[in-house]
Amino acid sequence: MIKANVPVVPGSDGLMKDVSEAKKSPKNWLSGHHKATAGGGGKGIRVARDEKELETGFRMTEQEAQTAFGNGGLYMEKFIENFRHIEIQIVGDSYGNVII
């Protein structure tokens, strides 16, 4: 998405190995949220507004994700208040046919 110049929410480049790695995130993400990579339906997401919430929330989210999805992997994104989530589905084949 970034290569195609589509605006995206800033976030980690893949999994965060542990809370110490999450703490190294840019400070403007500190009011961010960590999300389960295998998540869905609102499970495995927690907002951290300061370092203490990040520390306790990271461990809780990791545990919740492991229990719910069998995968405790987390990534981090900057948290945006009052946002709208818009998703589109795109299907394509090896012949160049695309349906949006």
TrEMBL record:
One of its GO terms (molecular function) is ATP binding. Residues 1-100 form the Carbamoyl phosphate synthase ATP-binding domain. Its EC number is 6.3.4.14, 6.4.1.7. Pfam families: CPSase_L_D2. Residues 24-45 are annotated as: Disordered. InterPro entries: ACC_Biotin_Carboxylase, ATP_grasp_subdomain_1, CPAse_ATP-bd. Keywords: Ligase. This is Biotin carboxylase. It comes from Staphylococcus aureus. The lineage of its organism: Bacteria, Bacillati, Bacillota, Bacilli, Bacillales.
